Amino acid sequence: MKWVACELHTHTFHSDGRQSLAELAAGAKNLGFDCIALTDHNTMTGLAGKEVIERETGLSIISGMEWTTFFGHMVTIGLDEFLDWRPVGPGDIHAGLSRVHERGGLAGMAHPFRAGSPMCTGCYWEFEISDWNDIDYIEVWSTTFAPVKNNNIRAFRLWTEKLNEGYRIAATSGRDWHHQDPTDDPLSVTYLQLEEGDAPITAKVVGALSASRASVTLGPLLNLEVTSRGTNYGIGSAVPGGRASGSTFVAAVSADFQVRKGHWKLEDQRYTLKLDSNKGILAEEIITSDAPRLEAEIPDEDLLWIRAELWGMVKGVRTIIAFTNAVYFD
Amino acid sequence: MKTVLVDAQGKVTPAGSKSHIAYRFFVPNAADRLGVHFTYGPKYLEDQEKAKLLIEQGIEAYFEAEYLEQAKARWQSYLPLQNLITVSVDAPDGHRGAAHRHDREQLHVLSRHEATPGLAQGEIIPGMWEVTLSLHAIVTDVCDYTLKVWLEEEGTR
């Protein structure tokens, strides 16, 4: 498996962006991304000619569309055909989700708590969700310098609540990238862990995201591995049930500060690595970028999920800098 | 030759927010091009008092209690409030795209060889076509729109 730097929420002038796909792809390449999903509002025509742009830039481009409805924005990826958002009312989103899934796509809640109409039409998620298993991912970090924004903090909390309820939902970032104007804001990256092999890149991305093999960051790439009864379990995998009571497992967290070198910068500091779970913080360690590791022996009691988090100072604000998706427990 | 198929004007009000207006029209024969011209206005809600009220109502709905006052103090960051109507096109054989953007005047052309951004190129085939106006938000008391749809043959424009 291989970690790939992705930007999963982008636009071109085929909707309301101010960039062509070629300009977007060149911008993403210059920032060290390996893969983007084009998620224009309610159209897929911006994807025309993507193969040429992929060849020229070396960037992978995944097809997608942001359902820009009156009652919420929903990012979809991995589909090669338009699905109609217009018949969907506030109580009908599961019908829409079924259509996405039938065709092999995934759907995520885009910026669910951004202020909605009339300030940003449909931006606040109002669709009724009766089965959270239908939601593949939540875009918990939207736009730039994402983790300090209140609407994102709320989205991150929603994700955590759903994990606590036992749902296995992925969490992603999305810049909602509309133009190439420069910014000094820290940028988020969603790393997806793709399988090796000859499968099409879209299938690999859909496979990784649907399995929560994702790690989200403003810079360093966080990884988490659980060892239980001699077997290792990575991000997104589930430790099988039937474990003896009173047993323990080992959780190992590491942060790779070498990824996308030169494309992000954090001040030298003492960071905090945390191991969070449905039972709260299980372990915590002060680290530096020279020794970015945490290993903890954890009692195997009533766990549904664990994830790693990296905290520290960014632009004078103490914030979460990176987090992994969960390792689950059956 | 240019054949006009739809030539409509309408008025919508805030009550029409979050609704669609579909114009369904018959294309009698295959053609080289389909043209769509759409305008609407006013674009902006100029009345600041009304805008403030709408923004405060929105903030009540979208923010958690502890951030309400902070958000309301920054109500002007949401200005200007705008009407947003977007255009999408459906052919008898399927969807032909949408132009989700803020322009208050839009000229779209579809043909076998070209299409304006957001719309898909393809044959202009006979049958019932549809142009849908999606009213994402109407914030002014009244918003007027015009819609014209026509067929063109090569050499004319």
From TrEMBL, chain A:
Gene3D superfamilies hit by this protein: Metal-dependent hydrolases
Domain of life: Bacteria
Polymerase/histidinol phosphatase N-terminal domain: residues covered: 6-71
InterPro entries with a match to the protein in the record: PHP_dom (IPR004013), PHP_domain (IPR052018), Pol/His_phosphatase_N (IPR003141), Pol/histidinol_Pase-like (IPR016195)
Protein name as catalogued: CehA/McbA family metallohydrolase
Keyword Hydrolase: yes
Taxonomic lineage from the root: Bacteria, Bacillati, Bacillota, Bacilli, Bacillales
An MF annotation (GO) of this entry: 5'-3' RNA exonuclease activity
Matches recorded under NCBIfam families: CehA_McbA_metalo
Transmembrane segments: none
Keywords tagged on the record: Hydrolase
From TrEMBL, chain B:
Full protein name: Uncharacterized protein
Organism: Paenibacillus agri
